[in-house]
């Protein structure tokens, strides 16, 4: 019968919990150059369509200085001045499901 074929084409993903990415670079506590582009990188996660990156001037992410969605596992960021930046990333799937935020990291621009 056709029922079996149709059932196979209607693939429903189980309620998969997306993994939060792991932050790679800059390493925690690094000093990077202010006024120059710096590459932020993190691990790829499966079933992810985009990543949301959040950078803030405070540990609680109340003072967000940049928030951007990207399809790659990296983002170029140019800090405008000498400051400490806290950052984190989360995975977003095809159905807009989101992972938890990654464990935050920080770096200092000078």
Polypeptide structure, described:
The structure is a single chain. The model has no long low-confidence stretch (mean pLDDT 89). The longest helix is centred in the N-terminal third of the chain and has 7 residues, at 3-9. This protein has one helix spanning 3-9; strands at residues 23-25, 30-32, 38-42, 48-56, 64-70, 74-77, 83-93, 105-109. It has one helix and eight strands. The N and C termini lie far apart (68 Å). Strand 4 and strand 5 (64-70) form a beta hairpin. It is elongated and about 45 Å long. The strands form two sheets. The protein has a five-stranded mixed β-sheet with strand order 2-8-7-4-5, with no helix packed on it. A three-stranded antiparallel β-sheet has the order 1-3-6, with no helix packed on it. 6% of the residues lie in helices and 43% in strands. It has 110 residues and is mostly beta strands.
Label this structure with key terms.
five-stranded mixed sheet, elongated, 110 residues, three-stranded antiparallel sheet, mainly beta, 1 helix
SSE layout and pairings?
Layout: H1 3-9, E1 23-25, E2 30-32, E3 38-42, E4 48-56, E5 64-70, E6 74-77, E7 83-93, E8 105-109
CA distance, first residue to last residue: 68 Å
Mean pLDDT: 89
Series of H and E elements? HEEEEEEEE
Which band does the percent of strand residues land in?
35-45%
Secondary-structure-based class equals: mainly beta
Oligomer: single chain
Shape: elongated
Number of helical elements: 1
Low-confidence stretches: none
Radius of gyration in whole Å, from Cα?
18 Å
Number of strands: 8
Characterize the main sheet. 5 strands, mixed
Q: Spatial order of the strands in the main sheet?
A: 2-8-7-4-5
Fraction in helix:
under 10%
